[in-house]
Amino acid sequence: MTGRVAVFGAGSWGTAFSIVLADAGNDVTIWARREEVAQAINEQHENPEYHPGIQLPPAIEATHDVEKAVHEADVVVLAAPSQTLRDNLVEWAPFLPDRAVLVSLMKGVELGTLERMSQVIAEVTGAGPERIAVVSGPNLSPEIARREPAAGVVACTDEGVAQMLQARVHSPAFRPYTSPDVIGCEIGGAYKNVVALASGMAVGLGFGDNTAASVITRGLAETARLAVKLGANPLTLMGLAGLGDLVATCSSPLSRNRTFGEKLGRGMTVSDIVAHTRQVAEGAKSCHSLRELAARHDVDAPVAQYVDDVVAGRMTAAEMMDEVLGRPTKAETE
Ligand SMILES: NC(=O)C1=CN([C@@H]2O[C@H](COP(=O)(O)OP(=O)(O)OC[C@H]3O[C@@H](n4cnc5c(N)ncnc54)[C@H](O)[C@@H]3O)[C@@H](O)[C@H]2O)C=CC1
Ligand SMILES: O=C(CO)COP(=O)(O)O
């Protein structure tokens, strides 16, 4: 099944996912915030800023014009930073085709409203749940852009729409599974970034695999506690959008969140790190929104809480480790 897809966001993931879409047979138009990025994609068939050296397929073109980007698109993919999505959508919404399915690639929770990205999309565009989907999973963009084999989850409460999207994103290197669990996929995706910050801090502090595995496992327990409270299927957290993404992100030096955490662990300040990082590390913001979301639902969330404290400069990474180990002991499944 093929067609025309608009991808909003010419960053790491918007560009890499466009390769998946093109390889799956779609014609793709990327909307780029900066004119020069659109021009480079059209003229050099490359996104030199985000994926230098990767040749983009001929089915991918780019534009800075929103109306042109969505022309004849029946699927619109959103790949902006989570904290700017609302403002972006206010601009884009008047141009979105009435029946297009809106697909979030984003892994964050909005500060202030504490909304997941599908909720922001519903609120700003007025689209119903049958028109809103999420793609998530262990999908580090440099590997996807190199067409290394990977799998992901396409979640939509409407099974038919999930299956349609599954066919549209199924490329020789990318194997998509369907799921009705939008909440589980989104909480899994946002939370793993926060856990990757903690895991990166452990690496930066010089600790080894036992520490990393303990952080990952307790992070997964925390993710599942909140996701289930919000209505997710616990099995989603054991799947690609939960454990799968958590392992990839916490283990890979390619992860921006893990790298950010590693720098915190080595004693760099947030402002120093941000000054030297161009790309988004969603966990540095979502640690706060997830902490608040957990508090609102009376869920114990020490990882989000401590990571937020370190990012806000209230505690060092080393102090965080001491605090975590000094917590009262309890049963593992509590
Ligand atoms: N890079 C990856 O491996 C993956 C990223 N994601 C998620 O995808 C989302 C996008 O991430 P990336 O593409 O990796 O980030 P990025 O930092 O590489 O690119 C972000 C894109 O958004 C644009 N942008 C920045 N500020 C903006 C604004 N105010 N308004 C509109 N556009 C703006 C940038 O120009 C760029 O095109 C994030 O939520 C991330 O967690 C999900 C899976 C994999
Ligand atoms: O979501 C990702 C992999 O699935 C990308 O992780 P980072 O944003 O930490 O690079």
Walk me through what this model shows:
The chain has 334 residues and is of the alpha/beta class. It folds into 2 domains: 4-180, NAD(P)-binding Rossmann-like Domain (Rossmann fold, 3-Layer(aba) Sandwich), CATH 3.40.50; 183-326, N-(1-d-carboxylethyl)-l-norvaline Dehydrogenase, domain 2 (Orthogonal Bundle), CATH 1.10.1040.10. It has helices at 12-23, 35-44, 66-70, 85-92, 117-125, 141-145, 159-168, 182-204, 209-229, 234-237, 240-251, 256-265, 270-275, 283-296, 302-311, 317-326; strands spanning 4-8, 27-31, 60-63, 75-78, 101-104, 132-136, 150-155, 174-179. It has an 8-stranded mixed beta sheet, sandwiched between helices. α8 (182-204) runs parallel beside α11 and α8 (182-204) packs across α14 (283-296). The protein is globular and about 60 Å long. The structure holds 1,4-dihydronicotinamide adenine dinucleotide and 1,3-dihydroxyacetonephosphate (13P). Residues 107, 138-140, 193, 196, 245, 248-249, 255-257 line the site of 1,3-dihydroxyacetonephosphate. The active site is at residue 192. InterPro entries: 6-PGluconate_DH-like_C_sf, 6PGD_dom2, G3P_DH_NAD-dep, G3P_DH_NAD-dep_C, G3P_DH_NAD-dep_N, NAD(P)-bd_dom_sf. NADPH binds at residues 12-13, 33-34, 50, 107, 141, 256, 280, 282. Keywords: Cytoplasm, Lipid biosynthesis, Lipid metabolism, NAD, NADP, Nucleotide-binding, Oxidoreductase, Phospholipid biosynthesis, Phospholipid metabolism.
